Amino acid sequence: MDTKAYIDLENEFGAHNYHPLDVVIASAKGVWVEDADGKKYMDFLSAYSAVNQGHCHPRILEALTGQAQKLTLTSRAFRNDRLGLFAKQLVELCEMEMMLPMNTGAEAVETAIKAARKWGYKVKGIAEEKAEIIVCKNNFHGRTTTIVGFATEDQYRDGFGPFTPGFKMIDYGDAKALESAINENTAAFIVEPIQGEGGILIPDDGYLQEVQKLCKENNVLFIADEVQTGLGRTGKLFAYMHEEGVKPDMLIIGKALSGGFYPVSAVVSSKEILGVFNPGDHGSTFGGNPLACAVASEALHVLTEEELPKRSAELGQYLMEKLETIDKKYIKELRGRGLFIGIELKDEARGARRFCEFLQEEGLLAKETHDNVIRLAPPLVITKKEIDWAFERIKKALETL
Ligand SMILES: *Cc1c(COP(=O)(O)O)cnc(C)c1O
Known about the structure:
Elements: H1 3-13, E1 25-29, E2 32-35, E3 40-43, H2 46-49, H3 58-68, H4 83-94, E4 98-102, H5 105-124, E5 132-136, H6 145-149, H7 154-157, E6 167-170, H8 175-181, E7 186-191, H9 207-217, E8 221-225, E9 250-253, E10 265-269, H10 271-274, H11 290-305, H12 308-323, E11 331-336, E12 341-345, H13 353-361, E13 364-365, E14 367-369, E15 373-376, H14 384-400
Parallel strand pairs: 3-13, 5-6, 5-7, 7-8, 8-9
Antiparallel strand pairs: 1-2, 2-3, 4-10, 9-10, 11-12, 12-15, 14-15
The structure holds pyridoxal-5'-phosphate.
């Protein structure tokens, strides 16, 4: 079968809830992927930062196949010999006290919402049914009905109401707005330290420090959604670490937690907060399964032993310096932290999609976000030489199209 045949099949039998670039990937290794016709591309999206460790990392692959031959699923009706070890490893890495494992990022966000509400009622003493959670405009936290209910992207919501009440919307990056929005019923503030899907938007320095201070003063939980920005992507283990002294009450992680092998997510927090869950309050058949734990555990070992956060910081700066030299005829702004870079285009550029299609022709796979931003987020195992290779193509696209 060739590329066209695969695309036709997918279009005929799969719901059209995505608009992918028409490349049919059949295999991959590290930063490189190969399509069904044998053409090679460099991956500059990393499955939205789920493959920070590179495609099919040999160590994670070995953990996966080894565990798959022993035990894959017990459900949490029984215990398994991997969950405790993984929980300890993750909690220690995050310098927290407790974790709750789920599968997808959206499920971890849902878990954080449930924990925050229950904490609000049982610990903070919010009146019944009154708990509020503050979120930011232009956010991305996933696609469940509750989560899209507090999205501001029209398309995410259109046709999916009625939505869950109890969420309040403020401007991103505006600590004053948070201060005005907090009241005695506020249980939590959920924020992305950098808005990824929103267009790689980086708040002003000091924003998270302000957020933390306001949350502490008002007994409000500070929840960081690090599903995309966490685990090395921005040049630190977590993006909140770019601001000194900041430590969220709850961390939501996913994507790279499994190095792309398997959906693994988690909420990591304190005993006070996750302690609100009693047996039967919350759960997931696959959450915390031994295969997921083995994969995630190795994915974290790879992340630390290969010093991927540091690589991201160094190579991100290297790539950014090169991007600054590109002619500015189409570029409105370059933003980034580590290997998490957004090129915002001027109106004259007529959208980011055509640049991504050009880059595809040139052998580089990048995905636009928000119509006018090209997102650059290669696997963190990329080498300097590979960045040079990619840069030549990006420069060509932005200067000759
Ligand atoms: C991708 C993402 C999610 C949702 O994760 P899924 O695994 O797609 O459910 C949540 N929050 C952020 C910030 C994300 O980037």
